[in-house]
Design goal:
Organism: Leuconostoc citreum (strain KM20)
Oligomer: single chain
Strand order of the largest sheet: 3-4-5-6-8-10-11-12
Radius of gyration: 24 Å
Cofactor: Mg(2+)
Bound molecules: D-xylulose, cobalt (II) ion
Largest sheet: 8 strands, parallel, barrel
CATH superfamily of the largest domain: Divalent-metal-dependent TIM barrel enzymes
Helix content: 40-55%
EC number: 5.3.1.5
Enzyme class: isomerase
Main location: cytoplasm
Number of strands: 12
């Protein structure tokens, strides 16, 4: 087939030139980091809804980007939907990205009934399946959009309207069939409108009971058809509803445990969502990891000045380093990866910008991986923690951790200590020094 894009195949060029160009400066698929090839650690994924479907609209203006697969300027036809598949696969080939992720509605236009919509979808999935066979590209995860169509104005699984609830279930059933057929490594639930805008007209308990039961039905169906991919929930605190039920990692973990779903689900954590919750990306990844529930990452960023979800491609090496530190501590992500739920800025409207954006994102996380691996090799953070918590390694601290003391034992121990004695055991947190150390690791590892 003749080439659809003029952009050359992206290969590793190293950091000889400081100017970003058409190659990877840090992402070197075959380079071994922490015992594995970068391509094995970093399962990057192209997000269909951005890279293929975004025209860079915003609430104030029409799209600034035109895409060659919008046959006769119309993105909503089956002809465009089928053409788009060829472009996706060429994009994956040229960037060397192995995975992609999609919502059902990203692939094909809707019909008048669910059956008609599913038939449109299946035509595109047929073509995708064929292309996957030819190229070896894989689905990181798929999902259902239970938030774009008007019927979902009050949610899909938490809607007060049973007709809509049944429709949502039908949509998920079909998406799970597709997940099984295409071998999706995970299946994501992002609760687009699973939340509320107005407390007084919302039965929150009933809605949460409904969504938990909905998840159990989905799992039972996956078991029935033999789909073994990992189920994931993607937390987000607000937007589009004012209060999303899956606010952040800890809220979602509490929900999963309340309803006995903690063995069915893990979390898919997105950078920009973490800031909206008032956290950092590394905070969310840490808490999911410690709960044994780190599933996958939607690699993107927000910015310090904007209070909504801007889905910027990652470019912050400091953040990527700390996220990759948690990632390596987790042993990577067996059924997950780094999905670029990201779009170029509105003024980056040219087709080449999609390539530059993915290069930037992949280099950022490749760089983060390298720095994090070196931090772990040198046990930098481990040693900081070891020193800081050393008083729990012997004496009264160790007795407490071993479960050998009562509250009264601790009180007896503390009773006659003076402030001077206690304060003499305090250590500085050394935050400024530690931040300098992190910067030094970034300079040193990436300067090589
Ligand atoms: C929305 C978002 C979604 C999910 C998939 O903020 O992140 O694109 O990743 O539905
Ligand atoms: Co996302």
């Amino acid at each position: 087939m003749s080439e659809l894009f003029s952009f050359p195949k992206v290969s590793f060029v190293g950091n000889k030139s400081l100017n970003a160009g058409n190659g990877y400066h840090y992402y070197n698929a075959d380079e071994v980091v922490a015992g594995k090839k970068m391509s094995e650690w970093l399962k990057f994924s192209v997000a269909y809804w951005h890279t293929m479907d975004q025209r860079l609209t915003d609430p104030f203006g029409e799209g600034t980007a035109t895409r060659p697969w919008d046959i006769a300027g119309n993105p909503d036809t089956m002809a465009a939907a089928l053409a788009k598949v060829d472009y996706l696969f060429e994009f994956l080939e040229k960037t060397g990205v192995e995975y992609f992720a999609f919502h059902d509605r990203d692939l094909a236009p809707e019909g008048n009934t669910l059956a008609e919509t599913n038939a449109n979808l299946d035509k595109v999935v047929d073509k995708i399946e064929q292309k996957m066979r030819e190229t070896g590209k894989k689905v990181l995860w798929n999902t259902s959009s239970l938030f774009t169509n008007k019927r979902f104005l009050a949610g899909g699984a938490t809607t007060p309207f049973a007709e809509v609830f049944a429709y949502a279930a039908g949509q998920i059933k079909h998406s799970l069939d597709i997940a099984k057929r295409l071998g999706s490594e995970s299946y994501v639930f992002w609760g687009g409108r699973e939340g509320y805008d107005f407390l007084i007209n919302t039965d929150t308990k009933r809605e949460l009971d409904h969504i938990a039961a909905f998840f159990k039905l989905a799992k039972a169906y996956a078991d029935e058809i033999g789909y073994t991919g990992q189920f994931l929930i993607e937390p987000k605190p607000k937007e589009p509803t004012q209060h999303q039920y899956d606010f952040d990692a800890q809220t979602t973990i509490a929900f999963l445990k309340t309803y006995g779903l903690e063995n069915t689900f893990k979390l898919n954590l997105e950078g920009n969502h973490t800031y909206l919750a008032g956290h950092t990306y590394e905070h969310e990844v840490r808490f999911a990891r410690e709960a044994g529930l780190l599933g996958s990452l939607d690699a993107n960023m927000g910015d310090k000045l904007t209070g909504w979800d801007i889905d910027e491609f990652p470019n912050d090496i400091y953040e990527a380093t700390l996220v990759m530190y948690e990632f390596l501590k987790n042993g990577g992500l067996p059924t997950g990866g780094l999905n670029f739920d990201s779009k170029p800025r509105r003024q980056s409207f040219e087709f080449d910008d999609l390539f530059y954006a993915h290069i930037a994102g992949m280099d950022t996380y490749a760089a983060g991986l390298k720095v994090a691996a070196k931090l772990i090799e040198d046990q930098v953070i481990e040693n900081i923690l070891k020193t800081r918590y050393a008083s729990f390694d012997s004496g009264i601290g160790a007795d407490f951790e071993a479960g050998q003391v009562t509250l009264k034992d601790l009180a007896d121990y503390a009773e006659n200590k003076t402030d001077e004695e206690i304060n003499a055991t305090l250590q500085s947190g050394r935050q400024e020094q530690i931040k300098s150390t992190l910067n030094n690791y970034i300079f040193s590892v990436l300067g090589q």
